[in-house]
Amino acid sequence: MTDEYPSSLVVGFGLELRPWSEADLPAMVALFDNPQFARWTPLASPFDLDAARAYVEKSHRERETGRVLQLAVTTDGREPLGEVLYVRRTDEPVTTVELAYGIGPQHQGRGLASRAVRLMTEHVRETIAPERIVLRIAPENVPSQRVARAAGFRLTDDEPVRRPRREGPDIELSTWVADK
């Protein structure tokens, strides 16, 4: 892996989304090693340098498959403030891309999450053109519901989706779909 920051892949809304690099490892620990990420995401907890290194290596392997794209959210192409990602779902009845995101607690309240989701939604529409773009959010995760609404998503009446957590019981998620 390189120590350099890779070029941004997606730019807009005052953001530059780019692949993770080894230079990001300390920043990733500062962003993701907190109870908020442990509660709502499948990230390792504690999230230390080894977990960050494994995550970056996995993100590069996944990107090569074309099924998953994990990008650092930055405003300058350098300092990561969080992450936005997509997964091409193969277990859905129609062509579906699921987005997910997380902004470090120290960077929240600046509209980064909703802008990153809007930007990734546009990118997915232009490059993949799926029938549906979705977010999966726990009903008790009110801040993420606000982000979904601000990014142009609406709650569906789909059956809840169950996902395993690293620790504890499975989490039940509601489906939000991007408006056309």
TrEMBL record:
* Compositional bias ranges of the Basic and acidic residues kind: 155-169
Q: Which UniProt keywords apply?
A: Acyltransferase, Transferase
Q: Where is the N-acetyltransferase domain?
A: 15-178
Tell me which EC number(s) this protein carries. Answer: 2.3.-.-
Q: Which Gene3D superfamilies match?
A: 3.40.630.30
Transmembrane segments in this chain: where? none
Q: Name one Pfam family in it.
A: Acetyltransf_3
What are the boundaries of the region Disordered? 151-180
**InterPro entries assigned to the protein according to its UniProt record, in alphabetical order:** Acyl_CoA_acyltransferase, GNAT_dom, N-acetyltransferase
**Gene Ontology molecular function: any one:** acyltransferase activity
Protein name in the entry: GNAT family N-acetyltransferase
> Lineage from the top down?
Bacteria, Bacillati, Actinomycetota, Actinomycetes, Streptosporangiales
